[in-house]
Design goal:
The chain is of the alpha/beta class and about 260 residues long. The chain contains nine helices and 14 strands. It binds adenosine-5'-triphosphate (ATP).
Length: about 260
Amino acid sequence: MMSIPLLEVHTRPLLARDRRGGGERMLLEALRLSVAAGEVVGLLGPNGAGKSTLLRQIAGQQGAARVLVNGQELAGLSTTARARQLAYLPQSSELHWPVAVAEVVALGRVPHRSGRGLTSADRQAIEQAMTATSVSDLARRPITSLSGGEKARVLLARALAVEAPVLLADEPIAHLDPGHQLQVLTLLRRLAGQGMAVLVVLHDLGLAARWCDRVVVLHHGALVADGPPAHCLDDGLLARVYGIAATRGLRDGAPYLVPWEAVRP
Ligand SMILES: Nc1ncnc2c1ncn2[C@@H]1O[C@H](COP(=O)(O)OP(=O)(O)OP(=O)(O)O)[C@@H](O)[C@H]1O
């Protein structure tokens, strides 16, 4: 299903000062990418490829990317209006205060709030986000007391509570057990089915191949592939970008791959 992109991104080259050499180092080359309503796009690439940097650029936290949601330039919007368009789940959030889980999730409603109290729409969004991520039972627990996986699901709930049309999620399943990983990926697919555009950083190539409509692969800050997983994640790319070989198969007509062994690129 391809339609008008809900999310369109045009980045400019992003450089960082190289402390050792004294010159500048390219973090991210200029690139274009889009995500349509209904799509789950996996953002892939090895450690240091530039995935988090790209998500931060799209979220307006680093560098200057041109970002459009539904054809509207985000640059012209206020901070809160922008926050209502893009929900961003960063790779790591430091939460050192013993704030109750429900209050953490309620932070997702800040872009919607004009007064002090929560409206019924706020409460409904918070409740739905907590149910979808199975954290309702944790509502009163201090966030500092949770396990890594529980915390990850609470932070996803906070992003979902925004009810933005676009979700940017940086490794949302990294700390989760297999059951919760599949639960979150099922949820991302459901959100896309409801019309959202989802851009998600993943390291698990098997899950990316199975759950994403498209993958965008970064290598050394450059976009090296963009398309259906079965087409992009071929043997050549896996060897060149990840230095691995995979074993492949078909289940119920759907291709799958399992990273198998390290190879020389
Ligand atoms: N502000 C910065 N200054 C200097 N270097 C930076 C800066 N931000 C990111 N980098 C470097 O840019 C590269 C890309 O980092 P980034 O976090 O985007 O990678 P990533 O693909 O998300 O990796 P990972 O899979 O390990 O999370 C890394 O080499 C990182 O050290």
